[in-house]
Specification:
Layout (H helix, E strand, L loop, with lengths): L7 E2 L5 H11 L12 H10 L2 E5 L2 E6 L5 E2 L2 H7 L3 H7 L6
Antiparallel strand pairs: 1-4, 2-3
Helix pairs in contact: 1-2, 1-4
Length: about 90
């Protein structure tokens, strides 16, 4: 039995900021002192939109859709609700 999970609305958010937030909220695959920057994320997004393992962290998300993020696999690897926490961390208060 498959459970439908509502994707996260990311309309209007900068994709590089989304990628960086997901990376910051993901569990490291090993001890590392990687400092990922917004510019590195922007550069990566020029070449691809799906991120499996990204700078030693499991992302497993596509940023091809401009309005939604399908977070099921991200949360399976990083913990329940972690993708939602990542996106909330970059939302501007209304």
């Amino acid at each position: 039995m498959s459970v439908f999970i509502m994707p996260i609305d990311i309309a209007g958010l900068d994709k590089a900021e989304v990628l960086l937030a997901l990376w910051k909220h993901a569990k490291p695959l090993k001890d590392e002192n990687i400092k990922l920057t917004i510019d590195q994320c922007r550069e990566s997004l020029k070449n691809k939109s799906y991120f499996d393992n990204y700078f030693q962290r499991t992302i497993k998300c596509s940023l091809a859709d401009k309005d939604v993020l399908k977070q099921r696999l991200y949360n399976e690897y990083n913990g329940k609700g972690r993708a939602e926490e990542a996106i909330e961390s970059i939302r501007k208060p209304s």
